[in-house]
Amino acid sequence: MGVGCLKAISVKETSKLKGTIEIQGSKNTVLPIMASSLLASGSMVITNCPDIEDVHVMCQLLKCLHVKTYYKNHTLEIDTRQATYAMLPAELTGKLRSSVLLLGPMLAKWQRAQIGMPGGCAIGLRPIDIHLEGFMRMNVDVKLHHDILCCETYYLQGTDYTLHFPSVGATQNLIMAAVGAKGRTVLRGVAREPEVVELCKHLKHMGVIIEGVGTDVLTIKGSSSVSCHDYQNVYDRIVAGTYILMATCISSRIYLKQIDDIESLKTILQVANQLGANIVRMEQMLCIESDGVVGNGNFETGGFPAFPTDLQPVLMTVLTKSEKDSSLMEHVFEKRLGIAQDLNQLGASIRVNGREAKIEGGNSLTGHTVRATDLRQGAALVVAGLMSKGYTTITDISHIERGYEDIVGDLRKVGADISYV
Ligand code: EPZ
Known about the structure:
Layout: E1 8-12, E2 16-22, H1 27-36, E3 43-47, H2 53-64, E4 68-72, E5 75-79, H3 90-93, H4 103-110, E6 112-116, H5 129-137, E7 141-145, E8 148-152, E9 160-162, H6 168-179, E10 184-188, H7 194-206, E11 209-211, E12 217-221, E13 231-232, H8 237-249, E14 251-257, H9 266-274, E15 278-282, E16 285-290, E17 298-300, H10 312-319, E18 326-329, H11 339-345, E19 350-353, E20 356-359, E21 369-371, H12 375-387, E22 391-395, H13 398-401, H14 407-413, E23 418-420
Parallel strand pairs: 2-14, 3-13, 9-10, 17-18, 21-22
Antiparallel strand pairs: 1-22, 1-23, 3-5, 4-5, 6-8, 7-8, 10-12, 11-12, 14-16, 15-16, 18-20, 19-20
Helix pairs in contact: 1-2, 1-7, 4-6, 5-6, 6-7, 8-9, 8-10, 10-12
The structure holds ligand EPZ.
Residues 28, 31, 97-98, 121, 124-131, 165, 167-170, 191, 193, 195, 309-310, 332-333, 375-376, 403 line the site of ligand EPZ.
């Protein structure tokens, strides 16, 4: 998308959605897969790789390590044959939360890593204590020096470690470090998100021996000989979920393509169903139909298979359309209920108390200028714009472009009156 210099989206109230959207490749799956390329020397091709800012920043980070990357038409080639150790500067690591995922592979490959602190969406404190505690249990010395994280080890030692919270990133990081460790690593209490499962499957294709994939205990045999392997990226379940929820609050008949497996969407589909949408699965496709009348309920986010935190802002937006009251409990990121304030500005009545939001039914939204402050809150504001009377302008859309390849193009395909301004 050549819209980098355009900073706002204008959306008009839309009464009907009809048409087909092709769902892009998954951001949160491809970023750790890209990081894992460091574990082997050779070249690999990733297909269905989304054309989004986060992918391009990860390419720049890999380039700092003399890894060659070549991106064209959703295909990313990675060549790690010349990979050499380097420090990763804060100017780049600060642009992306997933920069932290290079720590594990760097430790496995070079027994050291010096990286600037990771960035990412402002949705909570987002500490990395679980990543670091796990590394320390693997014999790594960790220091923070002028905001640069310095990790070093003589050799990585396999360990038995229980994560105190099933962090997705820490699980992925520790699995990748364990590939280069002496002996066996047992990780307990790990995240079971589809993005963790995909990483494990890919590592298995590279030659790593991993047991327990999909459960909360993983056993990784270290020092296995690994080789590069191509990867076909899965569809983005959060982008798909955004459009499924959007279709529940506007009279719709939309088709979502590239959905070959609905396992990762199960809870999202149940919620959409509870709110009144009718969903039919077809070959590699979903049809979502609704009359735009939204039901209500009490919902909570959580680790997979619970409802994903990434879709909580969109769900809150949709619930403002209900005639009845609803509630939402955010269990993952403490600051992610921030969208309530934006929705109230548009006419909603939402009260936030700690991690819980109470959404009053029976209020209608009216267009206004609102600002995207993080990726999913920004996407939710686009959905709010479709539901709001008149026009809504969403500024600072670079946040949205970090994860949605072309939200404007997608929504135009289903008849929304939306454009870049
Ligand atoms: C991943 O972030 C995703 N990002 C997030 O997607 C997603 O919201 C999140 O998982 C939860 O599903 C990527 O995959 C690139 P966590 P991650 O570590 O790995 C706490 C999006 O919009 N925690 O599972 O950073 C943390 O503060 C994004 O696409 C610690 O306390 O999430 C949070 O409260 C944003 N210590 C909770 O765990 C740690 O060391 C979950 O974080 C690590 C995490």
